[in-house]
Amino acid sequence: MTAPTPATAPTPDGWTPELQNALDISLRGCDELLPVADWQRKLMRAQTSGQPLRIKLGLDPTAPDIHLGHTVVLNKMRQLQDLGHTVIFLIGDFTSLIGDPSGRNSTRPPLTAEQIKSNAETYYRQAALVLDESRTEIRYNSEWSDALGARGMIQLASRYTVARMMEREDFHKRYTGGQSISVHEFLYPLMQGYDSVALKSDLELGGTDQKFNLLMGRHLQAEYGQEPQCILTMPLLEGLDGVDKMSKSKNNYIGISEAPNSMFAKVMSISDTLMWRWYELLSFESLAAIAALKAEVDAGRNPRDAKVQLATEITTRFHSAQAAADALQDFMNRARGGIPDDVAEVTLSGAPMKLTAVLKQAGLLPSTSEALRMIAQGGVRIDGQAVSDAGLELAAGTCVVQVGKRRFARVTLS
Fold it and tell me: Are 299 and 291 in contact, with CB atoms under 8 Å apart?
């Protein structure tokens, strides 16, 4: 799957190669940039005046951890940051109290203030692994949202109609399907749009599922007499399965705070087709370098080489070059059937114990029936040797038990 080619606009007078490069970087991997002509004018103005543009990204701290899917828009922020523009990392501590209805088929329970505070504490620390902290403005939308008060909220609500709000796809589906829509959910896109007014943003980024909210920012800026922002939507990254978007609930994700060995191995597990999609959205390599690498693979080079390069880049970004090198060695060791370095230590009592019980109690498999199935399929090893006897009992002592390619435990049985 590839993102649609964003629309382009005629080259304006005074357009330079530097500006074209900035536009190309803006468009790389994006789904839509609207309106392109407005963005070209903003880029020209910034070059002429020397005044950097204000690039906004808002994230609600709905969970404590960020995964690679979240970094697609963060990568774009970093690219624009490297062009010299000001990036604003907006933590939606106020809007989290409402709950974003985007893509929902039911009312989303809002978070408590305590949950929001706890999650927000880790959000920026993780985002800073992608962004340049020295050139990032951190803001919280409670700064201006709390100050609005009841009167300001009513005045803001008067700037948009219910009919326009019901054009939103998820609201329309829920309404026609007889599902409830709470009045407070209408406030979410209004408040996100008002963030753009408060920050005087020139460009707002978001996933494709955020387009309605981003356009709200343009509308409200015009209502308040400001130059409307442009909007840039990024595709939703497919997860490890290559089908659904990356999500913790679908367990097809890579957390950016995961251990390097796990991160590296998970990147290596994706399909050869998905790898190029990830290169486009996650790699900092130039498009020319990626195209050259793909040409080499198409000409016969082992695609595993390209995947190792991608896994190394991503692991280095969130850990270090040494951690990535160690993770590669660990992966190669596992591929050869060897035992990795970071094996969990488990102590059990009750020797002799059936292997099926050891697998379950060590947390390697969820049930006895699953243990029996894996043994029958040849997916269980003890100290590197495949086991086929489902009735095997383990005596007291220590051994390394392996399930599949990536699950290990060093079990001490007494």
Answer: no
Do 197 and 221 form a contact (C-beta atoms < 8 A)? yes
Q: Are 249 and 228 in contact (CB under 8 A)?
A: no
**What's the number of domains the chain is made of?**
3
Same-domain pairing of 90 and 171: yes
Question: How far, in whole angstroms, is CA 128 from its chain's centroid?
Answer: 14
pLDDT digit of tens for each residue in the chain (414 aa)?
Answer: 444 445 566 778 889 999 999 999 999 999 999 999 999 999 999 999 999 999 999 987 776 678 999 899 999 999 999 999 999 999 888 887 776 665 554 555 667 778 777 787 777 788 888 898 888 998 999 999 999 888 988 898 888 888 888 887 888 888 888 888 888 788 888 989 999 999 999 999 998 888 998 999 999 999 999 999 999 999 989 999 888 889 877 888 999 989 999 999 999 999 999 999 999 999 999 889 999 999 999 999 999 999 999 999 999 999 999 999 999 998 888 777 667 767 788 899 888 999 999 999 999 888 888 889 989 888 898 877 888 888 898 888 888 898 887 788 888 888
User: Helix, strand, coil shares of the chain as percentages rounded to 5?
Assistant: 50, 15, 35
Q: Where are the alpha helices (DSSP H) in 50-112?
A: 71-82
CATH number for the domain spanning 168: value is 3.40.50.620
Residues listed for the chain: 414
- Those residues with Cβ within 8 angstroms of residue 88's Cβ, 6 or more apart along the chain or in another chain: 54, 55, 56, 57, 136, 137, 138, 139, 199, 201
Q: Is residue 2 part of a domain?
A: no
Question: Does residue 247 lie within any of the structural domains?
Answer: no
Domain containing 282 equals 260-335
Same domain for 189 and 318?
A: no
- Has residue 142 been placed in a domain? yes
Q: Within the chain, how many helices (H) and strands (E) appear?
A: 16, 13
Longest pairwise C-alpha distance within the chain: 82
Given 303, 335, 367, which residue is the final one in a domain?
335
Tell me, what CATH number does 400's domain have? 3.10.290.10
